Amino acid sequence: MKIRDIVNRDIVNLTNCENEPIHIPGSIQPHGLLIGLTKEYKIAFCSENISTYLSFKYAEVLGKDFKDVFGDENFDIIKGSSLNANVLQVKMELEKKMFQCFFHQSNDYYVFEAEPCDVKIESVTDVYNQTLQFINYMNTTQSLKSLCQMVASETRSLTGYDRVMVYRFDKEYNGEVFAECCREDLEPFLGLYYPHTDIPVQARELYMRNVLRLITDMDYTPVPIYTIDDDKDKNLDLSLSILRSTSPIHVEYLKNMGVGATLTISLIHQGKLWGLIACHHYSSKNITPEIRLAAQLQGQFITSQIDVRQSNEEYEVSRKTNNALEKVTGLDLPPIMESFKIISVSPELLKLCNASGVSLYINGEVYKNGVTPPASVIPSLSDWLFDHSNDSSFITDKIIDFIPTMKSVWDKISGVVYHSLGKNNSIIWYRTETIIEVNWGGDPNKAIVKDENGLHPRNSFAKWKQISKNRSTPWLHPELNVAAKYAHALQKQINLMLLSDEEIKYRKLSEKLKESNEELQNINWISTHDLQEPLRKIQVISSMMLFKEKDSMSDNMIDSLDRVSKSAMRMQNLLSDILKYTRIKNADKAFELVDMNEILKEVLLDIKDNIIDTEAEIVSSDLPSVYVVPFLMKQLISNILLNSLKYSSPDRKPLIAISVEKEVKDVNYGDSTYFKFVFEDNGIGFDQEYAESIFNIFTRLHSQNEYMGSGVGLALCKKIIQAHNGYISAKSSPDKGAVFMVYLPFQDDLKQN
């Protein structure tokens, strides 16, 4: 059986440490032993130092069953835990020695770790009392900072470490020592900042998975883990391991600080790494599992209270900003452009989010107050923010990072809160620069030291002062919430203004249309009265000349006078049809329930001569009573019948059939119910491509020489039926006759309208 270790021997330095696989070091710290088990509980991995604590060597246990090595009783404990998918922490007796054991699943393996119980055993009662005392103290703190300070003090008292810090990350993961308790002879780190490179990305990810990390002796020699060499890629993920060996870069960094042992507890808030409780000791140190758990519990106290304490601190800000919001939204302003000028100079608009200045950009006009960019710059700035935010919002406390080309504008202004109110509409709040003094624990620009041996973490942690410029104080959540609420209210104000503008435009347009209609009515009056009189005279004179002088006239003269008379008659008919077409309006009050059979009788009586002349036959089924305007419906039926008689076929006698269907629905015109009146003739018909255009005014399919007419009749039918909330359609083919379908709303629908 061939055995090999799984130690990661890749060279790690500061050029590649961000890619270091710290979760698979292949080694552990020496203050305990580690065994990796398969799902069948066979020992697949074993740390070299098992012989330090027990009577056998790693090569003797690899490949064996756990219960054969450690007994049935211990096997039953870990098997029960694995079946319930639990992380086990329990004391076990191994070869008559007591060990604190930890058991968890790691991908396809189980990891079993054991530490000898040779450190001072703490009284569970003492730990409980101290934790209970801390909870009582915790309720006396008001701010988050005071709570963190108490946690630092109580954790140091509980664990005995020389220095305990609450380390808080900013949005770039630079760390700040937010609270600290340390030995009096030590230089305090409180308030110092450390660059994000001190804790690389993969280390932060590991802190999210394993919330407690312990290094008992910085001078430890890593203990390799061995396995049977049956797979070249065989490895063991130690992300959740208590004993996992630490990155040599991290160890060197801590040694440079003079640290001999550490305890680190992750502070996770809203799914992100908020900070750490970092405990440093300047010699080797180990603590019992009970104290580790109590310290971890104090970290959870912090994360559970972050929202509460921040809310307390932001309450006063929220109260003031909401008061300002009530005042500015309570302004009684008309929906006109002048209102935005009044809004912009309101002091409450600045108080909404404690801004130094504000600008409104509405329909190309700029209104501003306080410290803002020049008015000439605001439109282009608004356009850039509109595009960059995708017509949404944009917030920053350092605008120069996003628009460095406008450096001269940002000499005084650093913070920006932008809300889009649509294209060419925006509101922007501004904050002036706040010069911030940041104290770093060593020069962040010299976090890496290069010497003859290569790259190393810095060994100087002396305070290094940096002046931060071009940045405003951060925007707080209450300020941003109120700004968003007011932007929404302002959007409504703009919409009201636009509606008001549209209403004014509509009113002016209505007035113009009214004037135009009055002019058209005057023109119509002239066309139907003043123009018809000379036409009548033309007809009378031409008739008299034909009657008295016919014998003395040549045939050409007689033909010319006859054509003049007919042209005058056609003109009269056209003017009469135009008059009828334009008078179809405001007929709502004339609707009444009418028997369509009676309407048809009246129409047939009126066109009796036409029927006789064409020898036509008109048949009809029984027609219903409908709500219509009687004289318009009479005009409609008359026009349809006369149209069919006019375009009758010379090869057969005209036949017109009238029928009706009740409660017909047509999805093209909604779900309303209609009476469908059908007028079917056997005339000359027409091509179906003209089925819609024949209802357009002045549309003719034949010349005047073939068929007399004005081209208004069917357009008049369409307008009449539209006045009744119905519709008309036709279908035909040449020499096959035509079918006209008139849809009138069913009377119950018409009553509802």
From TrEMBL:
<protein>
    <recommendedName>
        <fullName>histidine kinase</fullName>
        <ecNumber>2.7.13.3</ecNumber>
    </recommendedName>
</protein>
<dbReference type="InterPro" id="IPR043150">
    <property type="entry name" value="Phytochrome_PHY_sf"/>
</dbReference>
<dbReference type="InterPro" id="IPR035965">
    <property type="entry name" value="PAS-like_dom_sf"/>
</dbReference>
<dbReference type="GO" id="GO:0009881">
    <property type="term" value="F:photoreceptor activity"/>
</dbReference>
<dbReference type="InterPro" id="IPR003594">
    <property type="entry name" value="HATPase_dom"/>
</dbReference>
<feature type="coiled-coil region">
    <location>
        <begin position="499"/>
        <end position="526"/>
    </location>
</feature>
<keyword id="KW-0675">Receptor</keyword>
<dbReference type="InterPro" id="IPR003018">
    <property type="entry name" value="GAF"/>
</dbReference>
<keyword id="KW-0175">Coiled coil</keyword>
<dbReference type="InterPro" id="IPR052162">
    <property type="entry name" value="Sensor_kinase/Photoreceptor"/>
</dbReference>
<keyword id="KW-0600">Photoreceptor protein</keyword>
<feature type="domain" description="Histidine kinase">
    <location>
        <begin position="526"/>
        <end position="748"/>
    </location>
</feature>
<dbReference type="InterPro" id="IPR013515">
    <property type="entry name" value="Phytochrome_cen-reg"/>
</dbReference>
<dbReference type="InterPro" id="IPR003661">
    <property type="entry name" value="HisK_dim/P_dom"/>
</dbReference>
<dbReference type="GO" id="GO:0006355">
    <property type="term" value="P:regulation of DNA-templated transcription"/>
</dbReference>
<keyword id="KW-0808">Transferase</keyword>
<dbReference type="Pfam" id="PF08446">
    <property type="entry name" value="PAS_2"/>
</dbReference>
<dbReference type="Pfam" id="PF02518">
    <property type="entry name" value="HATPase_c"/>
</dbReference>
<keyword id="KW-0418">Kinase</keyword>
<dbReference type="GO" id="GO:0009584">
    <property type="term" value="P:detection of visible light"/>
</dbReference>
<keyword id="KW-0157">Chromophore</keyword>
<dbReference type="InterPro" id="IPR036097">
    <property type="entry name" value="HisK_dim/P_sf"/>
</dbReference>
<dbReference type="InterPro" id="IPR005467">
    <property type="entry name" value="His_kinase_dom"/>
</dbReference>
<dbReference type="GO" id="GO:0000155">
    <property type="term" value="F:phosphorelay sensor kinase activity"/>
</dbReference>
<feature type="domain" description="Phytochrome chromophore attachment site">
    <location>
        <begin position="143"/>
        <end position="300"/>
    </location>
</feature>
<keyword id="KW-0597">Phosphoprotein</keyword>
<dbReference type="InterPro" id="IPR013654">
    <property type="entry name" value="PAS_2"/>
</dbReference>
<dbReference type="Pfam" id="PF00360">
    <property type="entry name" value="PHY"/>
</dbReference>
<dbReference type="InterPro" id="IPR016132">
    <property type="entry name" value="Phyto_chromo_attachment"/>
</dbReference>
<dbReference type="InterPro" id="IPR036890">
    <property type="entry name" value="HATPase_C_sf"/>
</dbReference>
<keyword id="KW-0716">Sensory transduction</keyword>
<dbReference type="InterPro" id="IPR029016">
    <property type="entry name" value="GAF-like_dom_sf"/>
</dbReference>
<dbReference type="InterPro" id="IPR001294">
    <property type="entry name" value="Phytochrome"/>
</dbReference>
<comment type="similarity">
    <text>In the N-terminal section; belongs to the phytochrome family.</text>
</comment>
<dbReference type="Pfam" id="PF01590">
    <property type="entry name" value="GAF"/>
</dbReference>
